[in-house]
Amino acid sequence: MSSLATTASPTTHRKSEIGSVPSVPSDERKRRTAELVAKAHVSEGLERQRILDEVILLNIPVAHSLAARYRNRGQPLEELQQVACLALTKAVHAFRPDRGDDLLVYAVPSILGELKRYFRDATWTVRPPRRLQELRPRLAEAEERLTQDLGRPPRPSELAKEVDCSEDDVLEALDCSDCASPDSLHETPPGESGFAWIDRLPAEELGFDRTEAVAVLAPACRRLKSRDRKILHLRFYEQMTQQQIADELGVTQVQVSRLLQRILADLRGSITGSRRHTPRREGCLGRRAGAVGAPPPAPSYEAARTSPHRGPGRFGVWWLSLRRCR
């Protein structure tokens, strides 16, 4: 048991001492701190670490007093004290006595900067812009000062004039006061009972989407032919495959696919108000009518029959094949 006590780490011993730091007058603390820092500067290894630990323990009340300045800003005091003590530890290890003999001249700005950084980076649930974060402390000081001078809460215009910014920035900074710790949706609004904030949020109603779809598609579907409506019913209501629809109608699957494409294009054009453009079919030679090098329009049957240039019995077959291609 004694061996365990003797092998306990210095860190564990320091943790047990932090809660009972003796109260030392400021002059005595400053003198002892200067002596210990100078001694640590010429020491090495574990001896130097032990002296620096003593310096940290001696100045922990200073870190706690700095953290107490921010006690009423929505964060637990114990959390702020931990941030301040961590900043003090960093400052003690980074301090060089050859640049000055007063540790607190270097440590106090470091601790305050770490506390401000903590509030800026770690305490916001919804983080506002940095300019608003920096404006809020100035507004708090100006509001307290103007309240005492005017005997009433100051107006936004008076605050804007006091801190030399626009009134919109003041209103925006005041509105973001709840961004650090916003109210829960399950809380009840002030002055009311029985309903939480979450009960007032709109819920998604699927019936509205269905009503809108019916109102838009119904007129377009009524303009379809009965066969087209049957194909839509088999495909989207009966959930039949294209092959099953083809067997039902007595056509091929490829025809059903083309019919569905044409029906959906007609519905889309009917809903959007634009007509579906059907390109003109090409002639037998693979060229559109009117194109350069295209064959002349086919003559009528009577004109071809009475033409002196027609061949015996061959024009009828040519005219019919050309008509089929067109």
Outline the structure in words.
The chain is an all-alpha fold. It folds into 3 domains: 2-122, Four Helix Bundle (Hemerythrin (Met), subunit A), CATH 1.20.120.1810; 130-178, Winged helix-like DNA-binding domain superfamily/Winged helix DNA-binding domain (Arc Repressor Mutant, subunit A, Orthogonal Bundle), CATH 1.10.10.10; 208-272, Butyryl-CoA Dehydrogenase, subunit A, domain 3 (Up-down Bundle), CATH 1.20.140.160. It is built from 15 helices and no strands. The protein has helices spanning 2-6, 10-18, 26-41, 45-68, 77-94, 103-122, 130-150, 156-163, 167-175, 206-222, 226-237, 242-249, 253-272, 301-305, 315-325. The protein is elongated, with a radius of gyration of 44 Å.
Spell out the blueprint of helices and strands:
Layout: H1 2-6, H2 10-18, H3 26-41, H4 45-68, H5 77-94, H6 103-122, H7 130-150, H8 156-163, H9 167-175, H10 206-222, H11 226-237, H12 242-249, H13 253-272, H14 301-305, H15 315-325
Helix pairs in contact: 2-4, 3-4, 4-5, 4-6, 5-6, 7-8, 7-9, 8-9, 10-13, 12-13
